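Structure tokens please, single chain.
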Amino acid sequence: MRHAAPLGVPGTEPVRGEVLQLVECGRIARRIVTEHSAGIVCAVFRRSCYLEFAGRRTICLGDAALGRGPLNASIERFEAPRLGEALALSADRASLWRAQARQESPQRAALDALRAAALGRIPSDGLGALVCGGSNALIEHARPAFASLELWLAGGRLGGDARMLLGLGPGLTPSGDDYLGGLLIGLRTFGRAADADALWAWLGPRSSTRTSLISAAHLAAAAEGEAHESLHACLDALGEGTIAGWPGRLDRLGSIGHCSGWDGLAGVLAVAQRVAA
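Here you go.
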């Protein structure tokens, strides 16, 4: 991997070599890179890494296999850097990806087709079992939080038990956070944007202390209505009433993180099943 010229970032290795030219990036990633060209590697994986920028803002850097998302930025060839290394990026020639803004009601037939395709695909970890009404130890532990959110979705007051989902469960972005992110996106997509704003006003201040920097960044993106493209493909199909193609959509969704895609889908369906036509 190529790096950028020395910038002398305190407490890190200096930025070296050439600026990394992004090929494509999400809307939030572009905004961050444009404002702060150099970031510090804060998490490393085989095919991607996360960078932290000034103001505790983060993006995910990888190659095209990473897929599109609001925080994602792709380069032609990814080589894993070292933790703490400083990388400089340029989005000057990068194409922009952003989720298509839409507000529509999910269709009941599409929900039924989704659940039928989900059987046998849902991971045992995380909160994905909620998609088909199943359970596991983590779901049972979080029952008070789900009850609080259900009451709120029905027009009641949001109780303090809901906060237990923040930081709950496995993964770089914990399952509870991914569920809440799906809830935010479902509200914004399915005609309850004011509720999404209210939920984020409650969640936002708590996310800075109850979960990781990276997960909080994904929650903030979800509050703006954006997530990985594979979750948006499911949202689009639900709104369009699409019956076919769910196995492929769910397989792509299942490739996100440890079980993040399924956790987010569970949050989406908490809204979808309430407002479905």
